[in-house]
Design brief:
By secondary structure, this protein is α+β, with helices and mostly antiparallel strands. It has two domains: 68 residues, no CATH class; 116 residues, no CATH class. The strands form two sheets. Strands 4-9-8-5-6-7 form a six-stranded antiparallel beta sheet. A three-stranded antiparallel beta sheet has the order 2-1-3. The N terminus is likely disordered. The protein contains five helices and nine strands, in the order H-E-E-H-E-E-E-E-E-H-E-E-H-H. This is DUF5947 family protein. It comes from Streptomyces hazeniae. InterPro entries: DUF5947.
């Protein structure tokens, strides 16, 4: 085999690997851009990547999508609020309301997020003090809180931001306390959040 032929084989194999590694829409298998929307499959609890046409389709049919919920893009920074009444044992957590009025707390950790049911009455009282929490879209938006090491970050975010934070914590955690890498990375995650209506 000539050098030119070998180079073509190597380039072809690299192109095939890159094509397999590129992200595709989980609904129609079309390629998706690096910045794309997500949809939550509530039946399986999975986040799906969606292309622009599927995003538009699900935005138009929002009321009749069954177990598929398009994740909104809206992010809003909130003034510091106390989640103590919710029984939160840690400073890094996100709270996801469901359509039935319940709320689940998630605590990112090295093995993934731990979960706990939040007292519905305590959540209602917090919502009365902070009316912006009533605007959370059930299942696909969350109240995200970071009070670790004196931080004061309180955000309304799309659920995919919470999934990214969970992945970051799992990737960077070392030892019992997280090690030296996880907390600076968590702080960077929060400083890079931007408000997006």
């Amino acid at each position: 085999m000539s050098t030119g032929a070998l180079a073509r084989v190597v380039r072809g194999a690299g192109a095939r690997r890159a094509a397999r590694a590129a992200e595709h829409c989980d609904m129609c298998r079309a390629p998706v851009a690096a910045t794309h929307r997500h949809m939550l499959d509530t039946a399986r609890g999975e986040m799906l990547c969606v292309c622009v046409p599927c995003t538009l389709l699900f935005e138009q049919q929002a009321a009749s999508n069954g177990h598929f919920r398009l994740v909104p893009r809206r992010r809003r920074r909130l003034a510091p609020l106390s989640t103590e009444s919710l029984g939160v044992p840690v400073g890094l957590a996100f709270f996801v309301p469901d359509a039935d009025g319940g709320v689940e707390a998630h605590f990112p950790g090295p093995a993934g997020p731990a979960q706990a049911e939040v007292d519905a009455a305590a959540w209602r009282r917090l919502g009365e003090e902070h009316p912006e929490l009533a605007a959370l879209e059930p299942g696909v938006q969350a109240l995200l809180v970071n009070t670790v090491r004196g931080q004061q970050h309180h955000w309304i975010v799309p659920l995919d931001d919470c999934f990214r934070l969970v992945a970051l914590v799992r990737q960077e955690w070392r030892g019992l306390s997280g090690g030296g890498r996880v907390w600076p990375e968590v702080e960077r995650f929060f400083t890079e959040l931007t408000e997006d209506d």
